[in-house]
Amino acid sequence: MNNILTLPGLIDCHVHFREPGMEHKGTMATESAAAYAGGVRTVCEMPNTNPPTVSIEAFQDKVRRAEKIHDVDIRFFFGATEAGHIQEFRKAWSMPELRKRLVGMKIFFDHSTGDQGANTAVIEEAFKVCAELGAPLVAHCEDAAINAEARELMLDQVSEATDVSLHSLMRPCASEARAIEQALSLTRTYGTQFHIAHLSTALGIELVRDAKKEGLPVTCEVTPHHLFLTIDDYETLSARGKMNPPLRTAQEQKALWQGIADGTVDCIGTDHAPHLLQEKESGNPLAVPSGVPGTETMLPLLLTVVAGGWPHPNGKSQTGNAKISMDDLRRLCFTNPNRIFNLNAPEEEVLQIDTTAEWEIHGEELHSKCGWTPYEGWRVRGLLRESQQCKHTA
Prior knowledge:
The chain is built from 15 helices and 11 strands. An 8-stranded parallel beta sheet has the order 2-3-4-5-6-7-8-9. The protein has a 3-stranded antiparallel beta sheet with strand order 1-10-11, covered by helices on one side. Helix 2 links the parallel strand 3 (40-45) and strand 4. By secondary structure, it is an alpha/beta fold. It has one domain: TIM Barrel (Alpha-Beta Barrel), CATH 3.20.20.140.
């Protein structure tokens, strides 16, 4: 029996490499090394750096930095928090030397790392302009008003808010659903090619499923941390498990796996978001930065499920028979993101994976500058054969 499986170099359509402005957390070089070690050869990097990627000047600076990276192809999203940023995007989209690195636009319905939340007028203009240009538009879908109300209510009920699990209640499932509903309404109006980032709820899955039946040009991604972690993991992870959108219940997690099974979910993107451990473990857990690293561990986590296992130390699938095939893995981590974002990543099979290899994940052995992982000590299947990896030049 052949124990070596092959895959094209994977695409991670949602990463934060922190450069420029937050190089103490990660750089294009360190985080590309993490991606490469995880079988990822193309990434789409988000705009909430410092300065944010909301101008042609900032975008050009990122392109110059990325030209030094030769083993991972780094593409970039353009951000927008005001009307002028959208006009900058329009200009960048028309410039061939920038367009080859420009994936599309990213907007935030509520604040996350970098505080790039946009108001309703800017959001609508983004949908309109992206439709005119034929450019993909990606959104972080959480409703700012619902989040603010939930946070205020929670703080009124709790005398001292230091329990990190409250984070999941302060950014409730209804917040994601409301923002997706608003976004789908704009998609319906303008015909924008619309992609939902890090979808995390059963309500969100159902809205996307219905939108696709309606024929709307909508796609979505889910993250490994929402597929493999739940609110039960706050007990061991504490603030290391804080991210936006937050961890959900096992029931919500189950809906994500069902969305993979029935084709509602188009991509798995890691939302790789490194922060140093001292940042995650200092002060009030509810005030620490949100985000976890993940681009290096995506493939082995998924390969473990392909092999019929479940990598979580609880020893059983919290989702009730989570399943994924090699064909699903290729579709979710290469074919679909390649098509959705017009990446033209090479289809040659460059990864060779020993499916019999079992190993244990340890943050100190990974390549991200942050040096930790939410999957510490997890046993996984599938190891890249280093000698067979072919470097891809950007």
